[in-house]
Amino acid sequence: MIDKNSPLPIYYQIQEWIRKKMDDGEWEPGDMLPSERIFAEQFNISRMTVRQAITELVNEGLLRREKGKGTFVAEKKLEQPLQGLTSFTEDMKARGFQPGNKLYEFRVTPPSRDVADALNMKKTDSVYELERVRLADNKPMALEMTSIHAGVVTNLSKDIAQSSLYNYIEQTLGLTIGHASQTLESALAGEKEAELLQIEAGDPILWISRKTHLQDGTPFEYVRSAYRGDRYKFSIHLPRSTRRH
Ligand code: GLP
């Protein structure tokens, strides 16, 4: 398995050995790896070399370390297409996950200046402010801070906020959601994101801001979502335009 005469560095050979165990399904997400000491004894190499191999796989996101517990095979990342205006609930159901919500904040207030600008609101209008942790099979995937124009999306309640907003807007209110624009920014989790998403402060997250309009152009929501960097990768289809300069 480990060839000490090979020109390939030993840490690299260990890494490939671990990778193969995961590819073959012998080690599955959530499984704990043997300790560095056991690895070192098994392959008759130093613990430093084992650590180097593991650290690189942790950095790649294939393994994760838990303080005081050990090293585990990481969950597979979920691939989220960036085109297509879908809801969290729809996205999770399409993948066979049970969508869930933890509602941390629900209030009605006048809009902040940013929200008023984004949603074309007057200072005297009201906005629903929601803070939700979105769950897949009970595991936190994203934190969402949502502002909803209360004059457009009426009679929102805590109950509705704990299920699908888009479903309420379309099925109950009979409105048609038309289009949205989004921006993406990478960041590191602060204390608050870390606690709510059950990750460590300093772990990578991706902020996605979305402004959504009804079909007639009326903007109704402005959302900032923090997605866990270890659970998501985003994909996009890029057709090459035929009209080029
Ligand atoms: C995604 C979007 C949000 C949107 C939400 C609606 O998570 N990033 O902008 O508010 O879907 O999801 P649901 O209908 O499940 O509440």
UniProtKB/TrEMBL annotation:
GO MF annotation, one: DNA-binding transcription factor activity
InterPro entries noted in UniProt: Bact_HTH_transcr_reg, Chorismate_lyase_/UTRA_dom_sf, Tscrpt_reg_HTH_GntR, UTRA, WH-like_DNA-bd_sf, WH_DNA-bd_sf
UniProt-listed GO biological process terms: negative regulation of DNA-templated transcription
Keywords for this protein: DNA-binding, Transcription, Transcription regulation
PANTHER family: MANNOSYL-D-GLYCERATE TRANSPORT/METABOLISM SYSTEM REPRESSOR MNGR-RELATED (PTHR44846), MANNOSYL-D-GLYCERATE TRANSPORT_METABOLISM SYSTEM REPRESSOR MNGR-RELATED (PTHR44846:SF1)
Descriptive protein name: GntR family transcriptional regulator
SUPFAM superfamilies, A to Z: Chorismate lyase-like, Winged helix' DNA-binding domain
Source superkingdom: Bacteria
Protein species of origin: Alteribacillus persepolensis
HTH gntR-type domain sequence ranges: 8-76
Gene3D superfamilies recorded: Chorismate lyase-like, Winged helix-like DNA-binding domain superfamily/Winged helix DNA-binding domain
Residue ranges the record marks as coiled coil: none
